[in-house]
Amino acid sequence: MNRRTFATALGLPALMAAAPAGKGPAKIALRTRRLMLKHTWTTVMSSSDYRDTFYVEYTRDGLTGVGEGAPIIRYKESAETCTAAVEAIRPWLEAADPWAFQKVMAGVFSKIEGNWAGKAAVDIALLDWVGQRLGVPLWRYFGLDKADAPVTTFSIGIDKADVVKQKVKEAASYPVLKVKVGLGTDEEVVGAVREATSRPIRADANEGFKSNEEAVAKINWLEKMGVEFIEQPLPAANLDDMNWIRKRVHIPIIADEACLHPSDIPRLAQHFDGVNVKIDKCGGLLEGWRMIQLARSLGLKVMLGCMVSSSAAITGAAHLSPMVDYCDLDGNLLISNDPYEGVKVVQGKLTLPDGPGLGLKVKKA
Ligand code: MG
């Protein structure tokens, strides 16, 4: 009988799982996957049929932690630049002590410039590994109650009215829908959604309104259409005009493109009602946790958002979802070749896995 089977026989699996890690070193594999979108995805910024996301697989003591980040072109990062950035620190990262993950991530932040999706993939892989080694799901590790996980919105992409109605029909099990606005097709798109359903809608302008007056007129109209709140009506750099707009509208305005890192939040608290935290933009769950806490302490509403990505990144973010007011974690639902199964959406509500770490399973082909 070896040490593990002996401990298990004594009813000590948790104790064994919490035993210190072996000497390592870890083995790290980096990969890029092309995720295919079910529908061509159009926003103010771009239109596309696929996204390439970046993965880190961190293997040590026979366990593999998986992390994923969706690189964002706007921040001059791609799966290639993230790969190069993490490759450059691979020997250091493989030798680092994963139990000191706060210290390791501080090192990653000081060694890698930009490439936030790359940092996020490292952070999620480390935490997945730690959770697996401890035998606890990450929501439990963070001291959260999975019953508090909110509903997630389901995004209806911009399209012709009849296609929009079809998409709304396909999204029948989601109690709250999200619609992109600010493209000059708002009346047609929001009108089509409203014709098809009376469910609540949340809107995202992605900086698309051209003037303060247009923003106020559009938001006032969206209020009448049953929209609960709107994200980022004006360009990220324009904070000064936000309060002028806020005085003239009646729904919360959430900063998204203006909100990247914890240090952005105190300033945003003067101009917005809430912030959208995205793990791919801030560089991981530890940084996301920090942003949520900071935003809360400043009285802001908190939304957890995502990029188009697979269940690895989405499940990572979902483990923090019991802490937030609003969730927009549908990036994995928009693709047709998700390699993983993790968080599930049941009648719109995020249902967190109970398996250790992220609780991911590799999907059977
Ligand atoms: Mg947004």
List keywords for this structure.
8-stranded parallel beta sheet, 3-stranded antiparallel beta sheet, globular, 365 residues, alpha/beta, Enolase-like, domain 1, binds magnesium ion, TIM Barrel
Content of β-strand: 15-25%
**Oligomeric organization of the protein chains:** single chain
CATH superfamily of the largest domain: Enolase-like C-terminal domain
Shape: globular
Distance between the termini: 37 Å
Number of domains: 2
Largest sheet: 8 strands, parallel
Helix content: 25-40%
What is the second-level CATH architecture of the largest domain? Alpha-Beta Barrel
Can you walk through the features of this model?
With 365 residues, the protein is of the alpha/beta class. It contains 15 helices and 15 strands. It has helices at 3-9, 13-17, 79-88, 90-95, 101-111, 116-134, 138-141, 161-170, 186-196, 212-224, 242-246, 265-268, 279-282, 285-297, 311-318; strands spanning 27-42, 47-60, 63-69, 154-156, 177-180, 201-204, 227-231, 253-255, 274-278, 301-305, 326-327, 340-341, 344-346, 349-351, 361-362. The protein has an 8-stranded parallel beta sheet. Strands 1-2-3 form a 3-stranded antiparallel beta sheet, with helices on both faces. Helix 3 packs across helix 6. The radius of gyration is 21 Å and the shape is globular. It starts with a helix and ends with a strand. Residues 1-19 have low confidence and may be disordered. Residues 204, 206, 231-232, 256, 276, 305 line the site of magnesium ion (MG). The site of magnesium ion has 7 residues, from loops.
